[in-house]
Specification:
InterPro entries: K_chnl_dom, NAD(P)-bd_dom_sf, RCK_C_sf, RCK_N, Trk_Ktr_HKT_K-transport. Pfam families: Ion_trans_2, TrkA_N. The protein is an alpha/beta fold and 584 residues long. It is built from 19 helices and 22 strands. It has a six-stranded parallel β-sheet with strand order 3-2-1-4-5-6, with helices on both faces. It has a six-stranded parallel β-sheet with strand order 14-13-12-15-16-17, sandwiched between helices. A hairpin with a 5-residue loop joins strand 20 and strand 21. Helix 2 packs across helix 3 and helix 3 packs across helix 5. The longest helix has 46 residues. It is elongated. It starts with a helix and ends in a 16-residue tail after the last helix.
């Protein structure tokens, strides 16, 4: 939440409080009016029966009847009076069971609970806490980073301004402090001068203010921020940010890098030291029809096959596994080794088939620029005429892209854009519902097509896979991975949404076990894909896990990672974090 947004909410707080006060007064007034009217009715009906009572007695009768106490000391003799008593009883039950409890809970119990939660929310971190990561804001990116830090036992503290939200995060067991995000005192209390990294994922204007404020407290701390607009990158750098992550552009490039193409060439997706991690499609290459054992034996270079994927799912690395047209190889090797793989298996006499990009927003335009730089022809399908051309004026005359105006959900528009001869479709709109629809639509039109989809919310990733996506990438995962690697923590490479390559210390219980140990996968869901040195350099000269200090390169999702750490690294902690203290 940015600073202008918070000011707007502060301005709205007073009218909201007034509305609550008016509602409370209205509920009390309704109860008082009901008692008064019932008392008047009581006096009138009693007078018709020839009995006189005071107003105090009438109010007493109305309250005891509405509350269902009904002492029975005052009763009607006539049928009309008894019917009136029933009416008073029923209306009183509605008021006592509905309106009055709502008033008590909404205006008495809930504020008390909020105040209690606010009083328990930490305002300051312990003085001994060092090398932690400060996460300013509480969006999908910071939540994904915090969850990853929790699994890796890396101290991370969220800094939020809303005490109620801070209390909720604190109740989840995560470290959080509350304070104004534009106050230097907040970052002093958060230990920004002792932190490893400060991350801010607010709006561009709010991130500028945060960077300036953090620089007042810790001049040497590294500051990483996100930017939603390209023009904000320079401004955020001038404000003191060391790393500016333009999420839209990064997500577009990552989606483009997942396009496997139609020639079998290698696509780099990350690195560990001098070792690059890459994807390569088996489609139309000499590998199709081979078993995994035969493929490994046919490699002319030292490239190592780390994993096999089909439709975004990992397959067990068994020598008898058949390589098909839909198989994707996850490879590891140095630059010259990957080049040798390309020379051996790439279909060089065949040009790349075009790629269709659905959506001409920031993500779609970034993906188009990346594909264009790789020499892959692409077509952007955009519903708003003129949106893409204006953004691409700098590339006129050099870009190998075309634009098809129209609705991406229209089959005729997709056919006109070249869907029948395309090798892949990138689904880039912000709306997850639309992305699920487009993914399913394209899969039905071209079952063999590669579909790479974008997810705004992590909860929709599984749905997109079920809709037919071969690969899904989300803002939260891309942003958290980039910021995690920038923090200098154990490096990670995102293979596909939900599957990451990550480093973990070598457990003593696995020493001298085979790298292809199936027990680890059965127990945790993690695949051990390689042995690494302390500096992250991968080793290919060993098939067993050595006893010397080092790391393991693992592949798995967040649940598998948590199970692995709990099963094999439970007693190893990177640093004691301790609870965040209170400001007393």
């Amino acid at each position: 939440m940015g600073l202008p947004e918070r000011r707007r909410r502060r301005a709205e707080h007073v009218p909201a409080a007034r509305r609550k006060s008016r509602a409370g007064v209205l509920i009390v007034a309704i109860g008082a009016l009901m008692v008064l009217l019932d008392a008047i009715g009581f006096l009138v009906l009693m007078a018709l029966e020839g009995r006189e009572h005071s107003l105090v007695t009438a109010i007493y009768w109305a309250i005891t009847t509405m509350s269902t106490l009904g002492y029975g000391d005052i009763t009607f003799d006539s049928d009309g009076g008894r019917l009136f008593s029933v009416w008073v009883l029923l209306s009183g039950v509605v008021y006592m069971l509905v309106l009055l409890p709502f008033f008590v809970i909404q205006y008495m119990v809930t504020p008390w609970l909020d105040r209690r939660r606010t009083s328990r929310t930490p305002r300051k971190v312990p003085a001994a806490l060092r090398d932690h990561v400060l996460l300013v804001g509480s969006d999908a990116v910071t939540q994904a980073f915090a969850a990853r830090a929790e699994r890796s036992q890396v101290p991370a503290v969220l800094v939020v301004e809303d005490p109620i939200e801070a209390g909720r995060i604190h109740d989840q067991g995560r470290q959080v402090i509350v304070g104004p995000l534009d106050s230097a005192m907040t970052y002093r209390n958060a230990g920004a001068d002792r932190a490893r990294l400060v991350v801010s994922t607010l709006t561009d204007t709010a991130n500028t203010n945060v960077a300036f404020t953090v620089r007042q407290v810790g001049g040497d701390v590294s500051v990483a921020v996100t930017a939603s607009k390209p023009v904000s990158v320079d401004v955020l750098g001038l404000a003191g940010s060391d790393h500016v992550l333009e999420l839209g552009a990064v997500l577009g490039r990552e989606m483009a890098s997942r396009v496997l193409g139609s020639t079998g060439r290698v696509h780099r997706i990350g690195s560990f030291g001098d070792t690059f991690i890459a994807e390569a499609a088996a489609r139309d290459t000499a590998l199709v029809g081979m078993t995994l054992g035969e493929a490994i034996g046919s490699l002319s270079s030292c490239v190592r096959i780390l994993a096999i994927m089909r439709k975004g799912r990992l397959r067990p690395l068994k020598p008898e596994l058949q390589i098909t047209e839909t198989t994707v190889l996850i490879l590891a090797g140095e630059a010259d080794e990957l080049a040798a793989y390309d020379e051996q298996f790439q279909v060089s006499e065949q040009s790349e088939d075009p790629v269709i990009i659905l959506g001409g927003g920031r993500v779609g335009r970034s993906a188009s620029r990346e594909l264009t730089a790789q020499g892959i022809p692409n077509t952007i399908v955009e519903q708003l005429p003129g949106r893409v051309e204006n953004s691409y004026s700098a590339l006129e005359g050099t870009a190998s892209y075309t634009v098809a105006d129209g609705d991406a959900a229209d089959q005729r528009v997709l056919r006109r854009a070249g869907l029948d001869r395309a090798s892949a479709v990138l689904v880039t709109p912000r709306d997850d519902d639309l992305n699920v629809y487009l993914t399913l639509f394209c899969r039905r039109l071209r079952p063999e097509l590669q579909v790479v989809s974008r997810a705004t919310y992590e909860r929709n990733v599984a749905t997109l896979y079920r809709a037919g996506a071969d690969s899904v990438l989300s803002y939260a995962t891309i942003g958290a991975t980039d910021l995690w690697n920038h923090a200098g923590l154990s490096r990670r490479v995102l293979v596909a949404e939900g599957n990451e390559l990550f480093l973990a210390p070598r457990p003593s219980s696995l020493v001298r076990r085979s790298v292809r140990n199936s027990e680890v996968h059965r127990r945790t869901g993690c695949h051990i894909v390689a042995v690494a040195e302390e500096d992250g350099t991968l080793r290919y000269d060993t098939e067993s896990i050595p006893s010397s200090p080092g790391k393991l390169l693992l592949l798995g999702d967040r649940h598998a990672e948590r199970l692995f750490r709990e099963a094999y690294l439970k007693r190893r902690r990177l640093r004691p974090t301790g609870p965040v203290g209170h400001n007393r």
